[in-house]
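sry for the spam today, last one i promise. C-alpha cells for design, 309 residues
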C-alpha cells in the first residue's frame, strides 16, 4: 500500500505531513526513524499526522513525532504548516478555527494575502510552574521569578523554565561567557532535572523589539527554527521585563513575530509601556505567533518502507 505524504517547512524546520483522514498510516518508531533519515529516507525534523476530529469544536486532530520516533506535545512551525495545508486545500477561510493535539486545542488563523503561506497561531499562555514544565527542582537552585540555576559539566547555568505545551529552558548568552548551544545540549539533553526531556534555547542577543535565538530540539537536535522555542524565549524575556509585548525573533531559518502582553489581568488593556496589547478573541494573556509556512512537494512511499530498500 502506498502512503501519500506532503513535504513542508516553517523557516527550514521541515516536516513530513501525512493526512490520515484519507488513508491509514500507523507507523512504528523504527519506521519513523527510517523515513526521517536524510540519506536513506525522505528526511525531516518532525512528522505531522492528521486525523479525523474527535470533537465537534475542532477541524481535525493531529499528532507530532520527532525524527527519533518520540512523540512531541506541541510545535509552532508545525501548526503553521498544518494551517497552510488546510488553506491550500480550501478547507478553511480566514476565520479563526481550532485543531486538537495531545496538549489540547490550538486556535489558528490562515493569512493567504500578503506574504504567501502566513499563519497566526494562538500558542496559549506560557506556563512557568516548575511541576508543569516539568522540572525536578531537587536538581536546581531557585533564583526567583521562574529563574533557576543548574551545575553541569563544571559550569553554572542560570536559565528560565517555561512550557509552551512542551518543555523549554531558555539561556541568555550574556549570562555565561563562552556558552554555546552545543555545550548546553551535550550537558543537559539527558539531565535528570528534566524528566520529560527538554528543548534548549540560547538567546544570542536581544533588544526591546528583537531576539536572536538558536534552539536544540528534544528528539531532533539543532534546528533552523523552532516556533514554540521562539515563543518560550519571548515569554522568558517578557516575564523579566526586558522586551516589549511584540517582538521579532530571528533564527537561522528566518523570523517570527511573537505577541504577548505578559502575566496580567484581563482588565489591564495596556502594556507596562502604555502600548495597546494584542489579546486573543477568546481569552487574555495568550501568546500569538505569526510567520510563514511553505509547501515543498507531494510524494508517496510504500507502507512497508525500509531504509535498505
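last one done:
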Amino acid at each position: 500500500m502506498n502512503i501519500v505524504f506532503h513535504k513542508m517547512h516553517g523557516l527550514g524546520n521541515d516536516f513530513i505531513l501525512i493526512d490520515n483522514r484519507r488513508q491509514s498510516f500507523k507507523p512504528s518508531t523504527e519506521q519513523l526513524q527510517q523515513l526521517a533519515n536524510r540519506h536513506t529516507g525522505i528526511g525531516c525534523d518532525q512528522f505531522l499526522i492528521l486525523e479525523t476530529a474527535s470533537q465537534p469544536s475542532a477541524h481535525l486532530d493531529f499528532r507530532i513525532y520527532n525524527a527519533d520516533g518520540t512523540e512531541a506535545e506541541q510545535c509552532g512551525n508545525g501548526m503553521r504548516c498544518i494551517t497552510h495545508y488546510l488553506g491550500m486545500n480550501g478547507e478553511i477561510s480566514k476565520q479563526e478555527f481550532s485543531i486538537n493535539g495531545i496538549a489540547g486545542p490550538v486556535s489558528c488563523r490562515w493569512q493567504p494575502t500578503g506574504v504567501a503561506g502566513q499563519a497566526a497561531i494562538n500558542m496559549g499562555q506560557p506556563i512557568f510552574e516548575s511541576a508543569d514544565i516539568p522540572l525536578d527542582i531537587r536538581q536546581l537552585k531557585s533564583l526567583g521569578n521562574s529563574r533557576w540555576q543548574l551545575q553541569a559539566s563544571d559550569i553554572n547555568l542560570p536559565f528560565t523554565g517555561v512550557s509552551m505545551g512542551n518543555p523549554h529552558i531558555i539561556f541568555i548568552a550574556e549570562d555565561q561567557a563562552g556558552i554555546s548551544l552545543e555545550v548546553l545540549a551535550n550537558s543537559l539533553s539527558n539531565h535528570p532535572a528534566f524528566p520529560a526531556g527538554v528543548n534548549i534555547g540560547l538567546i544570542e542577543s536581544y533588544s526591546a523589539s528583537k531576539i536572536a535565538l538558536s534552539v536544540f530540539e528534544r528528539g531532533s537536535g539543532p534546528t533552523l527554527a523552532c516556533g514554540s522555542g521562539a515563543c518560550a524565549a519571548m515569554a522568558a524575556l517578557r516575564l523579566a521585563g526586558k522586551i516589549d509585548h511584540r517582538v521579532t525573533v530571528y533564527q537561522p531559518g528566518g523570523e517570527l513575530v511573537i505577541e504577548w502582553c505578559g502575566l496580567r489581568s484581563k482588565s489591564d488593556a495596556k502594556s507596562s509601556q502604555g502600548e495597546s496589547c494584542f489579546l486573543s478573541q477568546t481569552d487574555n494573556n495568550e501568546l500569538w505567533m505569526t510567520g510563514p509556512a511553505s509547501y515543498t512537494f507531494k510524494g508517496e512511499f510504500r507502507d512497508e518502507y525500509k531504509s535498505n530498500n
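Residues 130-291 form a domain with the Diaminopimelate Epimerase; Chain A, domain 1 fold (CATH 3.10.310.10). ok im logging off now
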